Amino acid sequence: MTERIVVVGAALLDGGRLLAARRSAPPELAGRWELPGGKVEPGETPEAALVRELREELGVEAEAVRRVPGEWMLTPPYVLQVWTARLRAGSPEAKALQDHDELRWLTAGTLWSVEWLEQDVGAVREVAQALNAGVEH
Fold first, then answer.
1. I need a labelling partner for 102 at 20 to 30 A (CA). Which of 12, 13, 88, 96 fits?
2. Which InterPro entries would you find in this protein's record (predicted)?
3. In the chain, where are the structural domains located?
């Protein structure tokens, strides 16, 4: 059996809003929205990967808060795990630095106004419950 490779996604929350990122690449994903993140490197914890990916993709300093229940299959051997995250004090504003061409902060009321990638929908549903309840962490 092939070893699973974990891809971390960040449900980056700030003031009751969730950050969504629109893919610019690869072509089959371009124009759809996702939770930013990326692969966990060998020897790296998922939480450390999340912090690194947010720095690389968005230019922000963030911290992982808690794991969102569940995991979602991507193309084998990849599996998506999502953590809620928050910006650290003094972090720069998020910018689309790689693989994204637009960022949007969504509220509970606008969460479904974008076309999410299928693999992110389950995680976004979980996070939506926290947003609807007004829970940040």
1. 88
2. MutT-like (IPR047127), Nudix_hydrolase (IPR020476), NUDIX_hydrolase-like_dom_sf (IPR015797), NUDIX_hydrolase_CS (IPR020084), NUDIX_hydrolase_dom (IPR000086)
3. 5-132
